[in-house]
Amino acid sequence: MSLSVGIVGLPNVGKSTIFNALTSAGAQSENYPFCTIEPNVGIVPVPDERLGQITSIIKTQKVIPASVEFVDIAGLVKGASTGEGLGNQFLANIRETNAIMEVVRCFDDEEVVHVAGKVDPLGDIEVIEIELVLSDLQSLEKRAKKYQAAARGGDKEAIKMNALLDKATAHLEDGKALRSLTLSEDDALLLEELQCISAKPLLYCCNVDEAGIKDGNPHTKAVAEHAANVGANMVTICGALEAELSELPAEEQLEMLAEYDLKEPGLNRLAKEAYSLLGLQSYFTAGEKEVRAWTIPVGASAPQAAGVIHTDFERGFIKANIYELNDLIEHKTETEIKSAGKLRQEGKEYIVKDGDIIHFLFNV
To answer: How many domains does the chain have?
Structure first.
């Protein structure tokens, strides 16, 4: 399934540097505003140590991890909602993504120009949040005219949508993002149809210098407190270091990580956080030809999980044979897992768990 995370932020906060490191795509990255004009798109594998554990037991020809699509979008400035800078284009691009990763500059460097003339992470966050809220207000006001007319005519769906628009508009007018609006399950589904930017899940990515890699700095502590208050997640990475690491062979990467007392690149954590942000999880298929992580939404049923492999598998689903990674580690083969009574047969109502190893049976 294809779901994307839009990388946003003010100009010169390190968006394209981090995108380059994530994707090794060579997206343009220079020290001036609006360097990124057209959004760059990259598919990034999601590191998963469970794949290594599986393949240490099941020898296979190919290993395929899960992946996340990242979109590097033009830098936003104050006034974007009224067309300043590349505002209209920025907002249109971010509206098409499923979640937002906001890169926040948390390092001081006189040689790297800040669009506002000073490093102020919370101020940067506020600028972007206000522009997203204003953009959503404009969007909902346009939609309201359509639904108000239909609601006056007695259209039941329009009446529901009109009530939601009133609630959402009032929330936005208070300067609050829609992701913080408490809604019923039905209203939440209706809101999804409106593709509001400020309703999208949010991850703050604090870009620090080398001194802030291990313990952060006052800037990251301020962002962490803000993230906790607004219900967002946060990761801290050094974009410059990650860019350097991405160009090194694996052995040299390990050596450099050891110098900073790090177990893995910060980008690994970033990819995992983005995957989680999208509400995704993985199940595995494992055999001699291929060991693969398949991406499904949290809460997907067994037939829905089978449908990710091929739509015919969902339609023709019969049952799923499932075991856990711990069972594989203990018993080594599927035959022994079955003999130990650990191989389960699940039907159409089964909700797949993260990390399930599954073999589907189906009619086609």
So the answer is: 2
